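Weekly modeling sync, notes
Attendees: S.R. (lead), two postdocs, one rotation student

Agenda item 3: backlog of single-chain predictions. S.R. asked that every request posted to the team notebook include the full sequence so nobody has to chase files. The rotation student volunteered to paste the first one in as an example of the format we agreed on. Action items at the bottom.

Example entry:
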Amino acid sequence: MVPASSREPGRLVNRVQVLDHPFIQDRLARLRDAGTGTGEFRDLVRDVSSLMAYELWRDWPLAEIPVRTPLETTRCRVLAGRKVAVAGILRAGLPMIEGVLRLLPQAAVGHIGVYRNPENLEPVQYSCTLPEDAGERRWLVVDPMVATGGSMCRALDLVRASGAGEVTAMCLVAAPEGIARVQRSHPGVPVFTAAVDSHLDESGYIVPGLGDAGDRMFGTK
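Predicted structure, as returned to the notebook:
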């Protein structure tokens, strides 16, 4: 075991940061476990998403405001800065959105419907609903897996086309191939993940990965 005092926090290297907080890594191990049931899997995805959002927004600006306590009025620090929107890739991104909203319930929400063509592994878009004031918001685009990177790239295309400026991508597990594709298509977008795994198999699944995150969340297989 690596002592907590000797671990270094994840660093943003080539616009990719692995969030290695012990609580995140513990829950990721349980997500990987094939014996984890549907309900627990969804809860874990929500938990990890909240923890990851907490970590990646450590630099959030604060403003001081007066607050009256039961004894006196004092100065307290509260969140400041730009409004936020979180966009999730359907369907597996839904619990991740819920996890982020635990921290920022006031955030606007976008839904992007994309599925992967099983023959050529390319993304196919079937819906997109985003807030109208996209250019005024700080964006977080979430999907549990960045495998080939096609779905995340399509989602980033759509968010950018809506007028968004500051955009971050967040996933639970990524493959090197998917990260490379995102970096080629959107070099200015930082990617936050809990793990970068070994590779993609011949079917485009991340190894060792989580399996099919959507099926495991909703019990469809």
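Discussion: group reviewed the output briefly. The first strand starts at residue 16 and ends at 18.
Action items: rotation student to repeat for the remaining queue; S.R. to check formatting next week.
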